[in-house]
Amino acid sequence: MVPSLPTRSSLALAVALVLLATPAHAQTSDPEILRTVEAAYAGISANADETRDWRAFYRLFLPTAQLVNVRGNAEAGFEPRASSVAEWIVQSGLGLAGRGFVEDLVHSRVEAYGPIAQVFTTWVTRSERGGAVNSRGAATLQLVHTPDGWRVASWIWTGQQQGLPLPGVDQ
């Protein structure tokens, strides 16, 4: 005797029940993902009289991680500038010494699946904590869960583009 196959409607009902029973954010519940991203933002931020801990910042990343600053605009074109974490610390980070630069995380959206995650963020920069906003923009960070916890595999950012609202801020 051959068992009868489920009908299309019974399959659709089963799938709907499973989806309804599954929490929408079941894969994004690990608070360490966002804590790692917040630590990365905190790592580049300091008032002029504060010292940044570049070693702690470096440890947040995979050894092969890339930081990519996308400059330009739709009219003139975009130019991504990629560097390793060590290159970025030498080229950009050390230039922040003795200078106030604070980048505040304004909005974030975490998506994760098992050992991988992406966090889309919007940010503002200031010359000092609580100071006036100098610039705004968006970034995406990709993370991987390692035996040492969540580590950033890439951080890509761009300043706010004219005519484009910042997700989670202007919308």
Structure explained in plain terms:
The model is unreliable at 8-27 (pLDDT under 50). This protein is 25% helix and 40% strand. Strand 1 (61-73) and strand 2 (77-84) form a beta hairpin. The protein contains four helices and six strands. The longest helix has 14 residues, at 8-21. By secondary structure, the chain is an alpha+beta fold. The protein has helices at residues 8-21, 31-44, 54-59, 85-93, and strands at 61-73, 77-84, 102-113, 116-126, 133-146, 149-159. Strands 2-1-6-5-4-3 form a six-stranded mixed beta sheet. The N and C termini lie far apart (59 Å).
What is the gist of this entry?
The protein has 171 residues and is of the alpha+beta class.
Mind sketching the topology for me?
Blueprint: H1 8-21, H2 31-44, H3 54-59, E1 61-73, E2 77-84, H4 85-93, E3 102-113, E4 116-126, E5 133-146, E6 149-159
Parallel strand pairs: 1-6
Antiparallel strand pairs: 1-2, 3-4, 4-5, 5-6
Order of helices and strands: HHHEEHEEEE
N- to C-terminal distance:
59 Å
Tell me which oligomeric state these chains represent.
Answer: single chain
Strand line-up of the largest beta sheet: 2-1-6-5-4-3
Class computed from helices, strands and strand pairing: alpha+beta
Tally of separate helices: 4
The average pLDDT value, as a whole number, equals: 86
Extended strand count: 6
Q: Give the % helix.
A: 25-40%
User: What does the main sheet amount to?
Assistant: 6 strands, mixed
DSSP strand content: 35-45%
Structural shape: globular
